[in-house]
Amino acid sequence: MTGSGIRGPRQNNRTGGICAYVICKCFSLVSLPSGHSKAVRDICFNNTGTQYMSAAYDRYLKLWDTETGQCISRFTNRKVPYCVKFNPDEDKQNLFVAGMSDKKIVQWDARTGEVVQEYDRHLGAVNTITFVDENRRFVSTSDDKSLRVWEW
């Protein structure tokens, strides 16, 4: 696939794959990792861009190697992850949070695969997560029409 303009990562809803594009005047498909059985809802790169996490309707979060396109590990709590974010701090790049369809925000350690903490105060699915206040807090939005500020 080629074209002109600036393009970035996007999902392939038919296959659950993720398309990665080189950002330049002309773009070309770099990789098309496959591994999700349903559509991808969100992706998030780590600070260095060497890895990214994908969240899909197949109820899995998957950690990918950007260069090889290989799946490194996968995580699930058997609910649909709506959004995912790595902790932006350099010393916490192994930690990520995911907003889930069951109203929870789940924090995982990518190194161990363990759930570190669950945040459970929303009354609807969690749609977005944004780190603020020098990454000491994060803000989430939900189908319950609220936003909430959480201590990391």
Automatic annotation (TrEMBL):
Transmembrane segments: none annotated. GO terms for cellular component: catalytic step 2 spliceosome. Keywords: WD repeat. SMART domains: WD40. WD repeats lie at residues 33-74, 119-152. It comes from Oncorhynchus mykiss. GO terms for biological process: mRNA splicing, via spliceosome. InterPro entries: PRPF17 (IPR032847), WD40/YVTN_repeat-like_dom_sf (IPR015943), WD40_repeat_dom_sf (IPR036322), WD40_rpt (IPR001680). It holds the Pfam family WD40. This is Uncharacterized protein. GO terms for molecular function: mRNA binding. It comes from the Eukaryota.
